[in-house]
Amino acid sequence: MAKKIAAAVVVLVLLGVILVFAPVFTVREVTVRGTTTLSEQVVVDAAGVPVGDNLLRLDAAGIAQRVVQIPRVREATVKRRLPSTVAIDVVERKVVAWIDTGSTVLVDDRGETFADPIDAGPPPDAMRIEGVAPDDAELLSKAVEVIAALAEQDVAQHIDHLSIHGPAEFVLHVRNGSTFIWGAPEDNRNKALAAQTLLGQESGQWNISDPTMVTRR
């Protein structure tokens, strides 16, 4: 019995050696999915997959870690697909706003900021924010909540920019020339509904800080 077990172990070891060194499992292809603004080549270059190495000995975690160093990438998953493919799936950050500091600083839907690595500028539907520093995480988090509420009511597309004069002094500048005084970043859904209604009104300066009692100056 002992001899049979030993023989089986030897066979398994030999099979393992064959799998690890067999040319059929050489990396020949790298695929990328999930990109929206990034090119696949940018991801491939960052991944640094050693084409020609054995697929089974590949450091998948290391490759994923290199890919998430791309500022626009939030998550990366690397899988081996036999016999010779490395598949990289990425999730890009969703850019909802931007800050002009002389260069473009992008803001994602979590309120996190990052530089634009491909120098493509902000997406056309991203809202410009004025009066906040890129490192003010708390204020940016509140700004993103306001933008999300506006987007849910299809109002965000009508806003030229959001200016912040203090923690409770948010002001929306509408493309039609109106100004919506938002006040504190709270009760955002009801304020967004009020803003939606005012889009059909004559332009002017509207105070919606209390959405139950909208006033015009």
From TrEMBL:
Leader sequence residues: none
Keyword Cell division appears in the UniProt entry: yes
InterPro entries (alphabetical): FtsQ_DivIB, POTRA, POTRA_FtsQ_type
Domain of life the protein comes from: Bacteria
Listed Pfam families: POTRA_1 (PF08478)
Subcellular location(s) per record: Membrane
GO CC terms in record: plasma membrane
Swiss-Prot/TrEMBL GO biological process terms: cell division
Main location: membrane
Key word Cell cycle present: yes
Keywords for the protein's UniProt record, in alphabetical order: Cell cycle, Cell division, Cell membrane, Membrane, Transmembrane, Transmembrane helix
Domain POTRA: 25-93
PROSITE patterns membership: POTRA (PS51779)
Protein name as it appears in the record: Cell division septal protein
Organism: Corynebacterium uterequi
